[in-house]
Amino acid sequence: MTVEPRPALADVTRGRLLYGGDYNPEQWPEHVWREDVELMREAGVNLVTVGVFSWARIEPRPGERDFGWLDRVLDLLDGSGIGVCLATPTASPPPWMGARHPETLPRDPAGATVWYGSRNHFCASSPVYREHALRITADLADRYGDHPALRLWHVNNEYGTFCWCDTTARHFRGWLHKRYGDLEALNEAWGTAFWSQRYGEWEEILPPRRTQYLTNPTQELDFRRFTSDALLECFTAERDVLVKRTPNVPVTTNFMPLFVGQDGWAWAEHEDVVSVDLYPDPADPFGPDGAALGALVQDLTRSQAGGPWLLMEQAAGAVNWRGVNHPRPQGLTRLWSLQAVARGADGICFFQWRQSRQGSEKFHSAMVPHAGRRSRTFRQVCELGADLGALAEATGTHVPARVAVLHDWDAWWAGLQQGRPSERLAYTEPLRAWHRALWERNLLCDLAHPEADLSDYALVAVPHLYLLTDTALDNLAAYVRGGGTLVCGFFTGVADADDRVREGGMDARLRELLGIDLVHEWWPMDEGDVQDLVLRTGDPGAPDDPDGACGPTAALWREDVETAGAETVAVYRGGELDGRPAITRHTAGAGTAWYLSTLPDPATLRALLGRAADEAGVRPTLAGLPSGVEAVRRGELLFLLNHRGEPVTVLLPAPATDLLTGRRYGRELPLDRHGAAVLREAPPAPGGG
Ligand code: GLA
Question: Where does this protein hold substrate (predicted)?
């Protein structure tokens, strides 16, 4: 049997970047729709997501259908040449579902019902919920499968609901049965000899509900794996209904950014188009929650997609869910949108098109805010539409990276357990710090699963993977011995796939690779504690690092490691670990493996990763840039992005033309505060260098 190739993002973009947002016309009288479409055209919008929360409108009572309004919306959009990303409305079942079928509502760990009156109130294991969700999905596909406006299916919205009900318990047992085969294996994997937790019957097993004291950590880990899979079943069931009826229309679902609840690697394999929602904090434009978070999420999404991806949602101004919700300074939305395009996005969309006047999100910004078409926001929305229109040639092109940062949800989940050496160690802190260090050095990286083929990467960074499978460990060993450079962070390779601690405090294969004999103890640090480091060999301090001058320090975590062949690059100074190795480097086979047993300060981390990259032959996209200026090459284009709050001048490697303005530059390119340029470089002069 031949399998037809699935449609892809290229079938939606058709050679131009997508631009638009969530469109919720059911919140507005019809005369507003006409203005909507007029403004969409003015802004250059070419794709809107319709119907995400329209289940109660389409199916006001069980089994009834009201499609008339949606027919008119789709016809109107089509008449203006605006494509539709049509959503299945299954993220927010109508009140009648919860009222008639309370078993579709999720239960919390203490058994309390999570009621309707908000959204995402469904139990992924409920057959009743699934049946209704598939029915409305099928009806939507039957009705609109041939509609000329239809470009892309958007299934559900930001999957991530957990449930601990009895139906879930049965489903969980089935999942465990498949994973372990028999109870003996489950008892072994969960370590139920501890605290008399041994199970004698499958029926005794529960999701990790509220308990008296600490819950079994492997039960917790398996429940996270199960929940990700249960939600994925909901997604693939809807996807299959759509694919059967509309085989030529690609299917996506929008991920939350760096979201703990789903195994994003496993999910991405089931999508035709990978899309993500991204809401960096405008109060922190160049900080870890601003552009740095954006770069990380974008690199992750591109890596999940294996190519171009779609930014499904961002905010045009303030969100409404932070403690204090700041609007975006002039130019920031443009800058962050271009950052996404630089890092592989083929479309930039917002939540939402028109700002709601009622409901829980009426203070969340939109492309058309309460202030309307004369607003500063709408003007910037129109300008961004024009900018994206000028970048059609970026569509579908690739963003090649020579560095991989390893990331794995299993390791993240395993590290969430209670009763750990330090509650201050959050999985994402080292991940974000390391990625940020690479980003600030303009060393472009992909993210990769620890079992993925790493042979194309010159440098592999592992900020912190507490859990590593045997396959992953063999993969890392083969990578290094084959000539790769590995930089490995603390508290890595500690547990196996069942969350069983490896002997020696770290897996023996990894210790051998790193030239480490054993880990005596972990020495986590309190908030505000600073540990001095002394560098022994090499000079990881870069002369252009202003904060490198104070001498290297570290925070969060320390380890007392015994080396066996590794060279000591830095030692701890002061305290109990005075003089003990903090950072090591080891040659293994044809490659090199570094170990960072602590979290160095940002300048030191930048310098260390910079040195490792340099030794591995990886150069920054552009050298000598002022700090805060990001450079990314995508296809033939060079993106320069000024994240600083003041103007800068960048020295160009070659004369170039900015596609956004049509202006030509020789050697110097001025960039405004939050300014950006997308350059096509002039070909080298004949005979010249
Ligand atoms: C998410 C949701 C949207 C909206 C925005 C608000 O991304 O998908 O429906 O709630 O958050 O930021």
Answer: 119, 157, 321
